[in-house]
Amino acid sequence: MIVWLFEFLDATINLHFDRWLGPRDSRVQGWFLLDSYLPTFSLTIMYLITVYLGPRAMRSRAAYNLRGPMMAYNMSVTFLSLYMFYKLCVSAWEGNYNLKCQNMNSGGDGDLKVAQVLWLYYFSKAIELLDTMFFILRKKNHQITFLHVYHHASMPNIWWLVLNWIPAGHTFFGASINCFIHVLMYLYYCLSTIPRAQPYLWWKKYITQAQLIQFALTILHTISAIIWPCGFSIPWLMFLVFYMMSLTAFFLNFYMKTYTAKTKSKRSGKDINASSTRNGGNYEDQKLVRRNV
């Protein structure tokens, strides 16, 4: 009964996808996890349930010390991202790709190689859900923000769609630049697990700036294929632009709250202390006096 229900649900979902989005790219038929949407959808639901229940389950437990596993995980994702960046660049070069507009069927063997790396990129987004698991087990719940959950939950689903309908051509750029950013980001995460390296990790905010630049470049690159079309699907390009704009808005909001607000707060604190010193002593000393009067 359960197997029949699963097969019926799978067939129904696939039928609606094919009806709404048209025929899938034949080059990826039979590839692991791509023929059915249910595994990706189920993983996303399990992830969201874990995000909701995980912190509650950890309330009465001590935080885990996961320095070793985190170091191994972050280093592994760093090297995986570096490998994917290299392979995407080489495959795009072999396919004679250009940045203005690249059709899905004009790169010969390069197109298939790009699709193969993009599948690995899609699979890596499932691996990166472990980011949140580490937060939960270490009781770093303040890091499980809406931006974090939205980004991690949406990426496997977005790239399942990309792999099935637009697995080569113009889509290579966003994945390539994201892999490069992830090399920097996960290297930072890896170094942050080493106590001696922590005083030298002053460049965290520049990673967020690099992510914002990444989104801007990807949006401009995608729009270029709309302005100068080459046969790549315009509706898909518009869909990708809107998705990247949503990420840009959330990341920009995070950056403003995390860094701009802190800078203003520090400046305000300095002004208050300077003013209080000029008017008869240290601001903290004056507060203490007032509490004792």
UniProtKB/TrEMBL annotation:
<dbReference type="InterPro" id="IPR002076">
    <property type="entry name" value="ELO_fam"/>
</dbReference>
<dbReference type="GO" id="GO:0009922">
    <property type="term" value="F:fatty acid elongase activity"/>
</dbReference>
<protein>
    <recommendedName>
        <fullName>Elongation of very long chain fatty acids protein</fullName>
        <ecNumber>2.3.1.199</ecNumber>
    </recommendedName>
</protein>
<keyword id="KW-0443">Lipid metabolism</keyword>
<keyword id="KW-0276">Fatty acid metabolism</keyword>
<feature type="transmembrane region" description="Helical">
    <location>
        <begin position="149"/>
        <end position="166"/>
    </location>
</feature>
<dbReference type="GO" id="GO:0034625">
    <property type="term" value="P:fatty acid elongation, monounsaturated fatty acid"/>
</dbReference>
<keyword id="KW-0812">Transmembrane</keyword>
<keyword id="KW-0444">Lipid biosynthesis</keyword>
<keyword id="KW-1133">Transmembrane helix</keyword>
<feature type="transmembrane region" description="Helical">
    <location>
        <begin position="212"/>
        <end position="228"/>
    </location>
</feature>
<dbReference type="GO" id="GO:0019367">
    <property type="term" value="P:fatty acid elongation, saturated fatty acid"/>
</dbReference>
<dbReference type="GO" id="GO:0034626">
    <property type="term" value="P:fatty acid elongation, polyunsaturated fatty acid"/>
</dbReference>
<dbReference type="GO" id="GO:0005789">
    <property type="term" value="C:endoplasmic reticulum membrane"/>
</dbReference>
<keyword id="KW-0472">Membrane</keyword>
<feature type="transmembrane region" description="Helical">
    <location>
        <begin position="119"/>
        <end position="137"/>
    </location>
</feature>
<dbReference type="InterPro" id="IPR030457">
    <property type="entry name" value="ELO_CS"/>
</dbReference>
<dbReference type="GO" id="GO:0042761">
    <property type="term" value="P:very long-chain fatty acid biosynthetic process"/>
</dbReference>
<dbReference type="GO" id="GO:0030148">
    <property type="term" value="P:sphingolipid biosynthetic process"/>
</dbReference>
<feature type="transmembrane region" description="Helical">
    <location>
        <begin position="234"/>
        <end position="256"/>
    </location>
</feature>
<keyword id="KW-0808">Transferase</keyword>
<dbReference type="Pfam" id="PF01151">
    <property type="entry name" value="ELO"/>
</dbReference>
<comment type="similarity">
    <text>Belongs to the ELO family.</text>
</comment>
<feature type="transmembrane region" description="Helical">
    <location>
        <begin position="172"/>
        <end position="191"/>
    </location>
</feature>
<feature type="transmembrane region" description="Helical">
    <location>
        <begin position="66"/>
        <end position="86"/>
    </location>
</feature>
<feature type="transmembrane region" description="Helical">
    <location>
        <begin position="36"/>
        <end position="54"/>
    </location>
</feature>
<keyword id="KW-0275">Fatty acid biosynthesis</keyword>
